[in-house]
Amino acid sequence: MADSIYIDEDVGIDESSRAGTSDSPFKSLQFAYLQQAEPEKATYLTRKSATGAVPEGSDDAARLEWKPAAKSALKKAHNLFAAQRKKAAKEKEQLALREKEEAERRAVLEEARKVVIEEDPGLPSAQRIRLYQKDVKLRPASGDGERGARVRVLGRVHRERKQKDILFLTLRDGYGFLQCVLGPPLSKSYDALTMTRETSVEIFGELCEVPAGAHAPDGRELQADFFRVLAAGKAAGGKDAITNRVSAGGDTQTLLDLRHLTLRGEVASKVMFVRDAVEFAFHTAYKEERLRKVSPPALVQTQVEGGATLFKFDYYGQNAFLTQSSQLYLETCLPSMGDVYCVEKSFRAEKSLTRRHLSEYTHIEAELDFITFDDLLNHLEAVVCRVLELVMADPVVGGYVKELNKDFTPPERPFLRMKYADAIDWLREHGIPNEDGEEHKFGDDIAEAAERRMTDAINRPIFLTHFPVEIKAFYMQKDQDDKRVTESVDCLMPGVGEIVGGSMRIFDYDELMAAFERTGIDSGPYYWYTDQRKYGSSPHGGYGLGLERFLAWLCKQHTVRDCCLYPRYMGRCTP
Ligand code: 4AD
């Protein structure tokens, strides 16, 4: 390359193929400088233009001349060159280091492939245990010579940690966790060195108390003498490792798209364990109260809670809906079965995205015959408290509730009973406006935000009763002492708001027909419902409890979306 490097800011081109001569100049000093092996040694001649478009004799003629590059420009070019050289050197060094490490790792793995591990036939045969099993002999930490049981466990790697030659694996099987300790030669095998989270493994060894000062689930660990990765092979690692796909605090929508993986996390799975226990506790509590379980249809042709949230579909050419509530069907069971309940899905085409609305939710509904409104409230309170008692009495599940909601204490009985009219006064006194930003007045629907503010301030379960006829469903019985209001109840919980809606039902035929008329609902398709009032009507009532809302309260979850397996809400129907 020439000793003098030419830069023409007009027609030069910044390409490495250029010679940098006056016939083949670069466009910028910086680029020209970076092309040189020893840039400090060259001289740089620059000019503004060589197009010849400048008329001779004009002032711009000077622009045609090659001049030495300005000192300041040279300094700038040099600084950039120096910085780039430094960066390149560092990158080269890092690459070399990576290659060295990679080569070392390859060599270690090559060696590891030669390590053959086999189960020692001389050892006592291993007893298969589930990770929850506690009735297994442990070798005492004191090491007084007693042996622990030799066991065989199956599970997925929940966590893995290497410490020198020892590989610690925490196994998970849905029933518990167990720390497994793999020393040499197991830890030097290929499978141990390439172990990834979520891999399913089978591990054999002796169960031991953990040494004093060390911590492990249930205070024990499995000193492995043999292990194998199960047939399906290792779980994805590297970029595709589960920890790179889902992590606590990750983007909400991504976590929901990957709910099948999120569910493996400790918080999500604890909520699901509590859910299982709560559902079971409701069954137990209802059986104790002698209610019978029934299973009403999900595909229906009648509404219960207003047309706005109906999911319509074509049913062999007829209009049909996904059920909003099984209530009306439960009412039809009373004459033959006595008090009944169901745990079924309800569907609401909610057009808003709130933290307590789902499109599909689990609805726990009960219907009781020959009762008063007070009986209804007392029953509801007793069932909610009994369910909590049963759940908290389970040492494992009660423990999960305490981990998720550390301040949880079962509510005191009786629950606060507050009439709607008193709630309106309370909201006015506390300056909480209605949806139009005005002072609350009798007849207003208490919106979600106001309801929550009041519930959070009172900070205990509230039975809010006696809502005005106009803002409640058509089937609700009027209060005989004040016909403006219904014998209705919402149970409100701090942090969530309404978790239960219930009422006494209109049991008089004519009154029910008038309610259909008033609300503009055609009573024709309800013949099976209105017939109940023709053939031995009775004072009766019931309620529906949203399981996900109950769990959001109990497990202190921000949203009901985290309280079901695969949430459905406006815009989401996957996975
Ligand atoms: O107050 P709701 O609409 O009452 C009924 O459906 C009655 N027919 C029930 C009955 O008396 N058998 O709903 C009852 C409960 C609410 O308190 C709430 O907990 C839950 O169902 N719920 C929802 N949960 C999640 N997402 C939604 N979109 C919900 N809509 C109601």
Percent strand:
15-25%
What is the annotated CATH architecture of the largest domain? 2-Layer Sandwich
User: Quaternary state, please?
Assistant: single chain
Name the average pLDDT.
93
Q: Which superfamily, in CATH terms, is the homologous superfamily of the largest domain?
A: Bira Bifunctional Protein, Domain 2
Radius of gyration: 37 Å
Structural class based on helices, strands and sheet pairing: alpha+beta
N- and C-termini, Cα separation: 63 Å
Ligands (ions, cofactors included): 4-amino-1,4-dioxobutan-2-aminium adenosine-5'-monophosphate
> What is the count of β-strands?
22
CATH topology of the largest domain: BirA Bifunctional Protein, domain 2
Biased composition (Acidic residues): 1-13
Coiled coil: 83-120
Catalytic activity: tRNA(Asn) + L-asparagine + ATP = L-asparaginyl-tRNA(Asn) + AMP + diphosphate + H(+)
Enzyme class: ligase
Q: What topology does this entry show?
A:
Layout (H helix, E strand, L loop, with lengths): L3 E5 L20 H6 L8 E5 L19 E2 L2 H44 L12 E2 L21 E14 L2 E7 L4 E6 L7 H4 L6 E10 L10 E10 L12 H4 L6 H6 L1 H4 L3 H23 L3 E2 L5 E2 L10 E5 L2 E5 L4 H11 L2 E8 L12 E10 L3 H21 L1 H10 L11 E4 H10 L18 H11 L3 E4 L12 E2 L2 E5 L1 E6 L3 E8 L4 H11 L7 H4 L9 E7 H8 L21
4-amino-1,4-dioxobutan-2-aminium adenosine-5'-monophosphate (4AD) binds next to strand 15, strand 21, strand 22 and helix 15.
Catalytic activity: tRNA(Asn) + L-asparagine + ATP = L-asparaginyl-tRNA(Asn) + AMP + diphosphate + H(+)
Family: Belongs to the class-II aminoacyl-tRNA synthetase family.
Main location: cytoplasm
